[in-house]
Amino acid sequence: MTMNPTRSMMVLLVLSAVFLTTGCRNPGAGSPPTLFSLSAQHTVPASQVIDVLEKNRLVLVGEHHTDPAHHAAQLAVIRFLDAHAIPISIGLEMLRKDQQSALDRWVKGDMDEADFKQIYLDNWNFPWSLYRNIFLYARDNHLPMVGLNVSREITRQVAQDGFNSLSTKQRGELEGITCNVTREYRDFIRSAFGAHGHGNFNFLHFCEAQLVWDTAMAINAIDYLNQHPQRTMVLLAGSGHARKMGIPYQVSTRSSISTTVLLPHAPGILDPNSISTSDADFVIMP
User: Fold this and answer.
1) pTM
2) pLDDT above 90 (res 7)
3) Domain boundaries in the chain?
4) Contact criterion met (CB below 8 Å) for 286 and 46
5) By the 8 A CB rule, do 78 and 234 touch?
6) Which of 54, 237, 253 is nearest to 146 (CA)?
7) Rounded to an integer, what distance in angstroms lies between the CA atom of residue 145 and that of residue 5?
8) Residues 153, 171 contacting (CB under 8 angstroms)
9) How far lies 261's CA from each of 133, 155, 157, 239, 278, in Å?
10) What is the pLDDT of residue 286?
């Protein structure tokens, strides 16, 4: 989970260079954003460039799903690493693992946009327009895209009735996944998602659903990276899942793959006063 200072600075410089080129709130216009280093506790202007990013196997870039600027920033990271000949793949919260053949056909150019859009909408509830440029860039530049998630039916059932309600067949989709919700994880979920039990809402079941989601994405990312040791994965996920106690923690318990977390600024939720290095490495400042 931790990174040495040299590597952390390398990541900071790379991401700074990304946003110098593209901007954050409005890519291509206005002043470049500032990244706040949670370890150094100061802001760094996006004004430095580095030629090589080495040995960063998993770069998590968080998002608020409905914010177009966050998706533009994700694409900027992808474009920058690709431009510097870093062999990357794109890990996706938005697509299930069982959709991998469709993703492969899309990247190869064997599926038109209208058909792929229908597959996307079957997997994800947010408008295609928010993610379209990322998918088009991957297709046009033949960058592998990796479905990391499990079916919505499983997470919905866990959230409603708990992990123990899953059938043997359903658990077959969750190979290697257990559901031990610790007090630390409960506290993290309250912080990351603002979840509080009330009425018919079962907070433990909600935590179990989030843990299944985090763990599945971590396992699927590790499996892919182990099978493709030459690649770095840029993993796109909601900021709650991208935080260090989410996917990165599940990765750290199963692998020595290094992780770096970049989260977008959200006043009072994701800002230098409300999160620390236990949550992320950097905050994208407005």
Assistant:
1) 0.81
2) no
3) 1-87+231-286
4) no
5) yes
6) 237
7) 30
8) no
9) 22, 24, 29, 9, 10
10) 66
Contact 270, 263 (CB under 8 A): yes
β-bridge pairing 88-96 and 145-149:
parallel
In this prediction, residue 19 carries a pLDDT of 38
- Per-residue confidence at 27, pLDDT binned at 50, 70, 90? very low
How far apart CA 219 and CA 193 sit, in angstroms, is 22
Q: Are strands 259-264 and 232-236 parallel, antiparallel or unpaired?
A: unpaired
Helix (H, G, I), strand (E, B) or coil at 251: helix
**Do the beta carbons of residue 72 and residue 236 sit within 8 Å?**
no
CA distances from 69 to 28, 29, 87, 117 (A): 11, 12, 25, 21
| Selection from 194, 177, 178 nearest residue 243 by Cα | 194
Scanning the structure block, which residue is given the tokens 């892919």?
Answer: 224
How far is Cα 271 from Cα 286, in angstroms, rounded to an integer?
10
